[in-house]
Amino acid sequence: MAEAGIDQSHDHHMDPATEYSSSKLGMWLFLGTEILLFGGLFAAYAIFHARYPEMFYEQHLELNRTMGAINTCVLIFSSLTMAMGVSAIKWGKQKTAAILILITIICGLTFGVVKYFEYSAKFSHHIYPDTSIFFSLYFLMTGLHMIHVFIGLGILAVVFVLTLKGKFNAKYNTPIEMGGLYWHLVDLIWIYLFPLLYLIG
Amino acid sequence: MASHSHSDKHEHITSYKTYLIVWAALMVLTVITVYVSYVDFGTMNVVIAMAVASIKAALVALFFMHLKFEDSITWVFALFPLGLLFLLITMTFVDTFTRVVVP
Questions:
Q1: The domain spanning residue A120 has which CATH number?
Q2: Interchain contact, B77 vs A199, CB within 8 Å
Q3: Is A81 within the bounds of a domain?
């Protein structure tokens, strides 16, 4: 605890423990805002589903359950490799961490490719966001989620390169952990989107 | 309590084994929720699907996101938005379905 000799004229960093715990709290706070961002759409979904249950039921049958289920598995697996990557770097295994982050990125890209084929199939059946309230919500919710997948991939790409460069180790790995938290949130939201859109409609 | 960096201050590192068990549980729950969706339980379908999703979300938050091992202030930060989300959805419901003139 270096209380003595704090020079106010310099840009002092917090001590590592405080820096780490405040990063984590800040991240959780941010994730809270993300939940509420999607929350508006969840509220809209709940209201319209309660009002037009038959329309939601009929139209959700247009969605490809198999594709949705595959993407669910892909995303859950990517969360697993991300979580393992965080453990790996905390044990000081830089190379293992890098590989696990890379697998996570590949899974995220796979998710995007599957979603691309799904959207293409919808468009070829002349289903667009203005087709109905159900599809409006479908495209909005999965679209906003997709944006989050891309942002997550961007963060993970940076973290991956920095891990390869050896910037992280057992003592300092906050960016990997925070990137991981963001990635898990993306997974968390999909865990609700999948049944709401593909399974119950 | 001498100078502690975060790595020696009761930091918990989850084993690969634990993560693999959680992942297996998530896969089983995914299979269950897809399977149940092909069976007609009426309104119970929604309840079951949301219950399974919430168990999955809890597993992801507790283990993958490490919440199980975080301090109480992190829990407050994590749970507070859920309270707001609950308010948002219930208040919107109460508003929309108690109007005399349905918009």
A1: 1.20.120.80
A2: no
A3: yes
